[in-house]
Amino acid sequence: MNLGSIESLAYLYPEGILVLSILAIFLVDLCVEDKERLGNIALIGAALALVFTSGLSFFGVRFIEGLQGAGEGWLFHRMIALDSFAIFFKVILSLSVVGTVWMSLGSREINGPNQGEYYGILLASGLGMFFMASATNLLLAYLSLEFVSLTSYVLTGYLTRNRRSGEAALKYLIYGGVASGTMIYGMSWIFGLTGSLDYAEINAALLQNAPDHLTLFIALVLMLAGFGYKIAAVPFHMWAPDVYHGAPIPVTAFLSVGSKAAGFALLMRFFYPALSQSGDAGMWQFVPGVEWPQLMLIVAMVTMTLGNLAALNQHNVKRLLAYSSIAHAGYILMGFVVLSDEGLRAMLFYIVVYYLMNLGAFIVVMVVANNTGREDLEGFRGLAWRGGALPAAAMAIFLFSLTGLPPLAGFIGKFYLFAAVVKGQFYWLAVVGILNSVVSLYYYARIVKTMFLDEPSDLEGEVALDPHNGSLLAILSVATVVLGVYWAPVFDFADRSTRFFLGS
Amino acid sequence: MESSILTLMIFFPLAGMITVFCLPSQAKDLIRWTAFAFTLPAFFLGIWLYQNFDTTTTALQFVVNVPWIESFNIRYFVGVDGVSISMILLTALLCPICILASWNIERAEKGYFALFLLLDTAMTGVFCAMDFFLFFIFWELMLLPMYFLIGIWGGPRREYAAIKFFLYTMLGSALMLVCMLVFYFQAGAVEGVGYTFDLTQLPAVAQHFQAEPLLFGFSLPQIMWLALFINFAVKIPAFPFHTWLPDAHVEAPTAISVILAGVLLKMGTYGILRVNYPLLPEETFFFAPYCLAALGAWNIVYGAFCALSQCFTEPKDLKKLVAYSSISHMGYVMLGMASFTPQGINGAVLQMFNHGTITAMLFLIVGVIYDRAHHRRIDGFGGLASVMPVYTGVMGLAFFAAMGLPGLSAFISEVLCLLGAWHTHKIPTLLGALTVIITASYLLWTIQQMFLGKPREEYADMHLSEINTRELCMLAPLGVIVVVLGFYPHAVLDLLDVSLQGLNEVVLSASTSSPDAAAVALR
């Protein structure tokens, strides 16, 4: 199916709901004194977008016909694709928006007179990510990426009185400008080689008349700057520590979960359906001549190693989690280089798991910062013994899950990634990944040690958990444990979602 | 109903953990008794298991095999055979004893007992699991409670000890994870097996690996054998991987030391028997003289000398002495396993059981004196025999058992190991036998310094009280087992014999099928 602009609107209700909520927030912001209400509108809007993406069904009865019932096809004259891959990412992205808004409602940093703009821009960023996940045209891919980047700069600089926040926003902006400029230059090479911006036409053109290998390779490397910047992969990761450190905590969480997932969606859709060919038995073949899996293999190894080694010596927990999120980009890329459906579904599954545990870890950081105003490791000293036993226990679950210890969800995620890598017989990559997991244990356990093993000093006050943050924390930590014991439904969802719409 | 006995034994403590979590944290006695109550069912089920275990078959018994994650063919598969029965019984026996030994824990009792029960579940699970994936999950599940139990309730250097233990074990298990995946995908390529983690089906996969050298002249299965061996050697602990053990033992609270020495160390040798032997029999035969026999003998000698040095060099820590002696005694297990003779392999598993009971007694004894004096210096006591006569009697039993005195359980198993190994590995056996002298000297020296002679005047005002009923209750069952097995080792040997001979045959027949190994066997 290939729909025009007007017919396409009927398949766009999640995005439509987001647009309506953004408008509603901006309008209500003009006439309401109690700014706290605005967060609730954002939460409802994001939740409705989630419901309409996934469809609402209980006991096999479908109450709301979501996108899942809509079939597959191109919308807006082949600009975006509606397929199970896009739906998967829309679910994850709307979950990230819901989680971030929920988090923001309980954050001391966000609470202020400018809340309306914050929530509006946050939802706008989510809207851009929806398009990133489904773009099948380089033009729209670039536009949505820029849209997400611009909104992210604003969110990063939300704390206008905080110098760190401003510095982070500026760094992010400069770095983002360079990265997206490089990327669009690479896109122009692709356009020159193939004569089209449409993924399916690029694919056909590349397979029919094989272009000069070096030219294509350079074009891909240039484009990788943009992708690598969004997922924070080495060597395009330099912005991440400063931005994660300076941004308000909910924004950091959103960047590490939502922005990264959207970046991966863009990367996967461009490299798999556009530049590769689906072969037998779930294996993919790349356009002949260009050895990008070798390149990405090195990128993955370097990313996880550098992220983990740099995290070892961090004292600010946000900064530590920034490096850890760089390392996790490296882990996820392991599934990317094996060129198989196993690798793809392992990546998707890991993104779900990563959402749960990383968002959870940032919520605990926020709870501590709300109570003590500190984000460094010292602020966590003896957390379990000064009233914060529950957040400390939840943090331990999230951190050990990030390490990849069973029976937590992170282990299952890593298990599938390693399984894909071993099946592709990339034994060295598996060994490097495994050694990295061991290294990462050291710094994750250091936080756990500080929370449980160290005695609290008298300087830090009590840490209390309010029901608002507590409930979200409980949901995420229970999900992390449950997915470590029984993960079949989520895995099946990821498995179903590795199908791209390639045209009928 | 009968087949679910293992499942009950595994998950009763987990139910206990949840129950303990629900209790109010002020009700300390209630928490202790609840934790104790939830370890008892496994103990009684263990007795029932002992009586109903069929000793005439190599087949798995009390099997539950249901799908868990169907898309990857991961199964919840538990069962017991002669290789694991003694270890399951040992775990069921030691856990209630350790709860009794934890009565003095003063800080965050709720967390302590909850984590202990989680550890109990994980340990029992490792010994019952017959699916490689399930085995791995339980194996790793032990890490988390252990880290916190040492790290929160341990001695002064507990943080260092806890993270060291954690990192060593994690490195080992990471290697196991890769091997597990290689097996899984190799199985998928074999006719009639298909993708599976089933440990009873994976032996069919071994011959299908490529035999060409892959790295440093080793083939893929050989590298996998070594990777699995390193994982298990960390737990045993075999010589170059042992350095976490003295730290962990010295810093851990008494009950956790008992669990470490009594159960966790056996997981290393158990894992080799359960995974390396049946899955890679040819490689096992190839590497056994070096990795098991030579390293085992070196473990015996090295551990004994390290223990001896504790009598003379600072800090003269009694617990460290026991920790090193435990490294030394695990060497006999490795030596016996490497022999591939009926006596050797039976002796090895019997030694695992005996070491579990004897070392548990030793650590409990150290704990008793530490609770009173708040130090463990060997030269810090003297003439304890006149102050604490009953305690001295119990101590004597345990020390002489550790020494390998005839009539006590360790004698039988150590002699079996040495007898079995003599045919195949002469020099290691000789070294192992001669080390008995060193063992006797450090144990006798300790007895002399601590228990004999006159009470020291500078410690006269410490008022060391005699061992109390609770402490006797935890030591007495172990003492009885040590004496009974000294005269009647068949109580345990009969359980093991058939299965272990079956395992032995697997390795020997695989070794004779390959030409160079046959030459070794003929020599």
Structure notes:
- The complex is a heterodimer of chains A (504) and B (523).
- In chain A, α15 (389-403) runs parallel beside α18 (467-485).
- Chain A is globular.
- In chain A, 71% of the residues lie in helices and 4% in strands.
- Chain A has helices at residues 5-8, 13-31, 36-54, 84-105, 115-134, 138-156, 163-194, 199-208, 213-231, 239-246, 249-274, 292-311, 317-337, 341-372, 389-403, 409-423, 427-453, 467-485, 488-496, and strands at residues 56-58, 61-64, 73-75, 80-82, 276-278, 284-286.
- In chain A, 60% of the residues are buried.
- By secondary structure, chain A is mostly helical.
- In chain A, the strands form three sheets. Chain A has a two-stranded antiparallel ribbon with strand order 1-2.
- Chain A has a domain at 291-504.
- By secondary structure, chain B is mainly α.
- Chain B has two domains: 1-141, no CATH class; 216-515, no CATH class.
- In chain B, 72% of the residues lie in helices and 4% in strands.
- Chain B has 20 helices and four strands.
- Chain B has helices at 5-22, 28-52, 82-101, 109-128, 132-141, 143-153, 158-188, 220-235, 244-251, 254-279, 281-309, 318-338, 342-373, 384-387, 389-403, 409-422, 426-451, 469-487, 490-513, 515-522, and strands at residues 61-69, 74-80, 213-215, 218-219.
- In chain B, the strands form two sheets. Chain B has a two-stranded antiparallel sheet. In chain B, strands 3-4 form a two-stranded antiparallel ribbon.
- In chain B, β3 and β4 form a beta hairpin.
- In chain B, α12 (318-338) packs antiparallel against α13 (342-373) and α12 packs across α16 (409-422).
